[in-house]
User: Which sequence fits this backbone?
């Protein structure tokens, strides 16, 4: 696959008081403001995971918007970046 067919992917784990505070709904609403695809879901260990893909700047701005909007609930953010073929169509809650 050529680099032209690849997109920026990020797996982002948010920890803190991030479940039960509207985090997934907020992420879904914010995703509509950016050209990103992927999903957000709660993890059994209390974290929230976001898988997002798109242009590097769009994904970065999306994650930054979540951090800004939910800053009072987030203690740590772990981000893993990679490039690869698109995997998602749209942004959903899982």
Assistant:
């Amino acid at each position: 696959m050529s680099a032209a067919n690849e997109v920026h992917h990020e797996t982002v784990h948010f920890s803190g008081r991030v479940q039960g505070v509207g985090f997934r709904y907020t992420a879904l609403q914010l995703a509509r403001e950016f050209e990103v695809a992927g999903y957000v879901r709660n993890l059994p260990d209390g974290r929230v995971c976001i898988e997002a893909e798109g242009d590097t700047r769009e994904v970065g701005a999306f994650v930054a918007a979540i951090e800004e909007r939910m800053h009072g609930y987030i203690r740590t953010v772990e981000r893993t970046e990679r490039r690869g073929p698109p995997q998602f169509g749209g942004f959903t809650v899982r």
About this structure: The helical segments are 23-31, 56-69. The radius of gyration is 13 Å. The mean pLDDT is 96.
